[in-house]
Design a protein that fits this description.
Strand order of the largest sheet: 1-2-3-4-5
Structural class: alpha/beta
Oligomer: single chain
Strand content: 15-25%
Number of helices: 5
CATH superfamily: Aldolase class I
Shape: globular
Order of helices and strands: HEHEHEHEHE
Helix content: 25-40%
Radius of gyration: 14 Å
CATH topology: TIM Barrel
CATH class: Alpha Beta
């Protein structure tokens, strides 16, 4: 099933409210939140505090794409801020099966993302725990890449 989840990464953050309302009015299924920490990827975006501040702007589900080191540690903070799905990178998780189970125990959907070069053979072991699978078309870290 195809779902549309526009990212707010390219939004004008001075007009974030109208940008999110526009996403909802466009018929999107989710709001995609690209969370970067400057460690796993060479850029920094925003954290749970911003997510909490924008949560009331839409009823659309929030998917937090955690391009961060140790995403399972931060997952509860994003759930508490209002995220409905937590997507982690297979490359950051030593125990991906355990991480996905933990995210599901937090009461949200669990997603897996992979960088363009990452093999997907591991899916036969964890695919049943995965609600979303995101294959990056670029190396993560910066929006607007071709």
């Amino acid at each position: 099933m195809i779902k549309i989840a526009p990212s707010i990464l390219s939004a004008d953050f001075l007009k974030l409210e109208s940008e999110i309302i526009s996403i909802e009015k466009s018929g999107a299924d989710y709001v995609h939140l690209d969370i970067m920490d400057g460690n796993f990827v060479p850029n920094i975006t925003f954290g749970p505090m911003i997510v909490k501040q924008i949560r009331h702007l839409t009823k659309l589900p929030f998917d937090a794409h955690l391009m961060i080191k140790d995403p399972v540690f931060f997952a509860p903070m994003f759930v508490d801020a209002g995220c409905d799905m937590i997507t982690v990178h297979a490359e950051t998780e030593k125990h991906l099966h355990r991480s996905l189970e933990y995210i599901k125990k937090l009461g949200v959907k669990a997603g897996i993302s992979v960088n363009p070069h990452t093999s997907t053979g591991f899916l036969k072991y964890v695919g049943d725990l995965c609600d979303l699978f995101l294959v990056m078309s670029v190396n993560p870290g910066f929006g607007g890449q071709s």
